Amino acid sequence: MSNQKTLIEEKVINEDVLNKMEIIRKNMPAIFAGDSESYRQKLVYNLLNIIRSGNMQQFLWTLLRHLNAKKESSETKEVIRVINELYGYSSKFFEKWAYSVIMGIMETESQKEEG
Predict the structure, then answer these.
(1) What stretch of H or E contains 29?
(2) Count of domains for the chain
């Protein structure tokens, strides 16, 4: 019985993480829309290297440093709130949500071209 309960809890957590990852990915383009392509490319490159090293603290420090400059926007506040919630989960989700941050930043250019 407890094994089934654990599986159900894990499924709920996975769904919650996926929903939060989507919130992050959707909000990142609005946050970085005013930045140059070279700025975004450099940030993505740095974040990818940090993910590869598995250093969640360095990733958060780098990301939050960049988000702090844009803290007045509602999208930034939403992303920071969601990251704070994700930080409470185990580190096994780190790589997944970190990549959703990067995908959101990378989507910024395609949205600018379409708009």
Answers:
(1) helix 2-32
(2) 1
Q: Are 16 and 81 in contact (CB under 8 A)?
A: no
- How confident is residue 108, by pLDDT bands cut at 50, 70 and 90? confident
Residues across the chain: 115
Are 100 and 24 in contact, with CB atoms under 8 Å apart?
yes
Please give the structure tokens belonging to residue 65: 């440093």
Distance CA 47, CA 29 (A): 16
- Give the pLDDT of residue 92: 75
Q: Where residue 54 falls among pLDDT bands split at 50, 70, 90? A: confident
**Residue 46: how many CB atoms within 10 A of its CB?**
15
pTM of this structure: 0.80
Domain residues for the domain of 15 are 2-114
